[in-house]
Amino acid sequence: MSDLTTGLSATAAVLTVELPFNDVVRGDKPPAPLERAQAAELGEAISTDLRQILDDIEGVGLILPAALYDLTEVLRPGLPMIEILMEVYRGSLPDSQFTPHVLSLGTHGGRFPIPSIAPLRRPGSGPLLGIPFVFVGERERIKELGEQLESRLLEQGRAGMQTDHCVRQYFGIEPENLAYATIHDLCAVLKVQLEHSGMPELWTLLEYALYRPGEAQRVSLPSGNLFIQNGARVYSPFYTFDQWARQNDTTADEAIDGYTNWARQQRIFTAGLEAHGLELVRISGETSFEGLCENKSLARAEQAAEPEADYFVETGLEPQALENVSIIALTEHSTEDLGPLAYTVLVQGKDGRVLHLSNEYPLRPEGIMAIRDRWRLRAQQLKAEYDLARPGGIVLAEDGQHLVPYIGSDTTH
């Protein structure tokens, strides 16, 4: 990538830090970034390693944040961390004249100097973390250096003793391996991991975001999930159970299995995409994309985009004026591995009439408590009884095509 105003270019790589698997299982946070003095020492150690691996890096600048990042924070659409580090290096130059030096970004008073690339330190990150770094220099020189990185780094890129010492002592960890890798190397590892996990389609979406952001892409899964991509934005239909059942001619048990599998894949892909900085936009499950190419699918998805929300309300019986309410009863439809999938809300009057009936679906974890709290508060306001039934399964009507309230005699799966 090039800086046309100064004639400078940049190429990036990463020092990968492999943590013991037990650290990840425990859900530990990655260590905090280093203070400035420690950061400078780490930067010099990494620079020494690179001078030994590569032919000649004299006359080339190096910038790195002295922090540990989950690789999802590095592999993001457009690789923004590289651009930001390039800009920070350029801003450090006296009178905008290029001066090759090592610039290590450390904290001061516990604050990271560039908030936009401060490590997230999410619990359970890893087991492979990374310290990204960027070479900055004249365009042709950086091009040659980039070719060397691609041909040598993966095979010859073992970290030296001083780098190992800095990482262990200053971050307070015991890494199992320290090795240098290019961005392409990391992408190759990610691709293999996702394909090994049975999610090649997730890599396809990430690949387009990283390398082909200007092209529309449409990916569908055997489970019925659909993703329509435009750069860092991915549109995806959200299906309620009733919508799923209408679109699939199945028995009750098959509908349960099919919808649960769809929901599982939707959550996995949502988490994977959002971890890499992509935005998932919900569209109605009633939207049809049959027979449409990628570009026409994208145009329809953009028109059908729904506002961001914590939960979605599918109304069965249109609400009446909620007066003289006797009880507000929620039924939690759930599976053992996914937890709550939906809530059926039944509002009954003192005369026994059903005043309101709906199915409400949490779209993210926060939506679970948002649904419960909203109806609990409403019951308090109406001086009505509040009940949450948790039958430990999915409660269906006799036809096996609709979610219904749990009243003790319905079929629970």
Query: Structural class of the helices, strands and pairings?
Result: alpha+beta
Mean pLDDT, all residues? 91
**C-alpha Rg (nearest Å):** 27 Å
What portion of the residues fall into strands of 2 or more residues? 25-35%
- Percentage of helical residues? 25-40%
The beta-strand count equals 18
Distance between the amino and carboxyl termini: 55 Å
Q: How does the overall form come out from the CA principal axes?
A: elongated
Describe the structure.
The chain is an alpha+beta fold and 413 residues long. The protein folds into three domains: 2-194, no CATH class; 198-303, Transcription Regulator spoIIAA, CATH 3.30.750; 311-412, Nucleotidyltransferase, domain 5 (2-Layer Sandwich), CATH 3.30.420. Helices cover 37% and strands 27% of the residues. Strands 1, 2, 3, 4, 5, 6 and 7 form a seven-stranded mixed β-sheet that branches. A five-stranded mixed β-sheet has the order 12-15-14-13-16, covered by helices on one side. Strands 8-9-10-11 form a four-stranded mixed β-sheet, with helices on both faces. Helix 7 (183-196) runs antiparallel to helix 8. The longest helix is centred in the middle third of the chain and has 24 residues, at 252-275. It is elongated. It starts with a strand and ends with a strand. The relative contact order is 0.11. Residues 1-5 have low confidence and may be disordered.
